Fold this sequence. Notes:
157 residues, mainly alpha, Serine Threonine Protein Phosphatase 5, Tetratricopeptide repeat, Ankyrin_rpt-contain_sf, ANK repeat, Ankyrin_rpt, repeat
Amino acid sequence: MSAARHGHSDIIRLLLRNGAPINAKGPQQATALRIAAEFGHLDATRVLVHSGALLDEKYDDGTTALFIAAENGHGDVVQLLVNEGADMNVQSHSGATALLMTAMYNRLEPLRILLDAGADVDLEDSCGWTVLTMAYFSDYPQLVHLILERQPALMRN
């Protein structure tokens, strides 16, 4: 887990070659993939993904590596995970999605990536918030503009 936290791709490769379980879980059920994604370590994330890490493995709160990468604004990691087939519409225990977190934390690049890849803009969290309502009420007009530009049908709702 420490190698993932610090982005030490070479150590991750060595550990995996010597039989380290790729999907082992640490505190809060975090996998090495989730930790590498959380800290924005693109190469470490790539090594883990290409070595067979489970893309949609859930953390104890129902979040995934994609969710946490989007929340933390790591667009390059988000792009990699989306390209590799991570489920963009996984909902946490509170119903939040990676897309919703980009709006909550003003993460423009991950928002753009997820919208362009077809993430579901209509999913609601447990409070009934969608990505558009979150961006609007969080006072992020640039995000609202991007969402409406990519999803013009939302203006009719």
